[in-house]
Every structure is written in C-alpha cells, then in structure tokens.
Amino acid sequence: MLERLQTLAFSLLMLAVPPGLAAEGWTTHQDPSGFSVQLPAGWRVLSDMPGALAFGDAQARWTALVRARRARGDLARWLQQEYPASEPGMQALRIDSLRTEGSDVVHAALQYRNPQGLAKRARLVAVRRGDIATVFVAATPADEQAQGLPVLSRVLDSLRFGAP
C-alpha cells in the first residue's frame, strides 16, 4: 500500500515523461539492500543509507532523493520549519511554492545551493503515513530544470522496494 501511495504521489509531482524519452541506455540497478531503480547511462547510486537514498549523474548535478523522516503535526508546517534542517546538503533552502492535498500530501517547489555552491531548483512531494513522511525530491541546476525533471521523474517512478 505504501509503495502504491509513493508511486502515485511522485507521479502527481512531476511532469509526465515525454513520449520521446527512450529507454535506450537505461539500466536497472538491483541493490543488495533491497531496492531496484532504473538509471540512465552513467548514473549511479550516490547514497543508499536507510531512510536516505540518492541517485544522480556522474557530477551529481541532476539528483533524485528519497528520504524517510519523522513528521508529526501539520505536514506543510513540518516541511517549512523542520525539513530544511534535516538536509545539510541543501544550503540557503527557500520554498517558493507549497500546495497541500489533504493532510498527508504536500507538493513544493524550492531553491537551494548544494555544498559546492551550485544553485539548484527542485520539486518535492512529501507523503505521510502515520508519523513517517516519505519525501521525494528531483533537483537540477536552476537553468536545467526543463530537461531534468522528466528524467528525474522516471528515475523516482521506477524505484521499487523488496524482491524483484
């Protein structure tokens, strides 16, 4: 059920993958820790710690993040006030827009600088079940968002937990 909610939430976040985005060069990464994900050629798993997955291109300019965080109370308030402190790699984080769907789904557009000083824009969806929020983030350099979001959407939408 949770996997279905996560897939649905992320699908709502991103633009649909354009029909011309071919599967050529994409591979399925089957991780020993129990997840699989489709990645474009040259991409890698940047982090696979429990509760903190990250995937990206070789330079980590385009990154797809999946986070599990404790989120009690109002989810939109949590996202604005507590989530930024849980992401040390997102410096000077600013939320540009925020939209809720009921009490357990929040969409946001944000800007931040990575530790190397690169300005990034990101789309985020947080889906909560109980007091745990699964946060999906698709981030690119500010001027590459139009090209990057469909690719990052596909990566995040392909994520599966458990046996293949």
What does this structure look like?
It is a single chain. This protein is α+β, with helices and mostly antiparallel strands and 164 residues long. The protein has a single domain, classed as Mog1/PsbP, alpha/beta/alpha sandwich (Protein Transport Mog1p, Chain A). The chain is 20% helix and 43% strand. It has three helices and ten strands. The two termini are 17 Å apart. About 10% of the residues have low confidence.
Q: Which key features would you list for this structure?
A:
164 residues, 43% strand, 10 strands, three-stranded antiparallel β-sheet, 20% helix, 3 helices, globular, alpha+beta, Protein Transport Mog1p, Chain A
Q: How would you briefly describe this protein structure?
A:
The chain has 164 residues and is α+β, with helices and mostly antiparallel strands. The protein is built from three helices and ten strands.
CATH fourth-tier homologous superfamily: Mog1/PsbP, alpha/beta/alpha sandwich
- The mean pLDDT is 86
**N- to C-terminal separation?**
17 Å
- Quaternary assembly: single chain
Fraction in beta strands: 35-45%
Q: Would you identify the CATH architecture?
A: 3-Layer(aba) Sandwich
Largest sheet: 7 strands, antiparallel
CATH class label: Alpha Beta
- CATH fold description: Protein Transport Mog1p, Chain A
Tally of structural domains: 1
Question: Strand-and-helix sequence, N→C?
Answer: HEEEEEHEEEEHE
Number of strands: 10
> Count of DSSP helices?
3
Poorly predicted ranges (pLDDT <50, ≥5 residues)? 7-22
Helix/strand/pairing category: alpha+beta
Shape: globular
Helix content: 10-25%
Radius of gyration, taken over Cα atoms and rounded to an integer in Å: 15 Å
Strand order of the largest sheet: 3-4-5-9-8-7-6
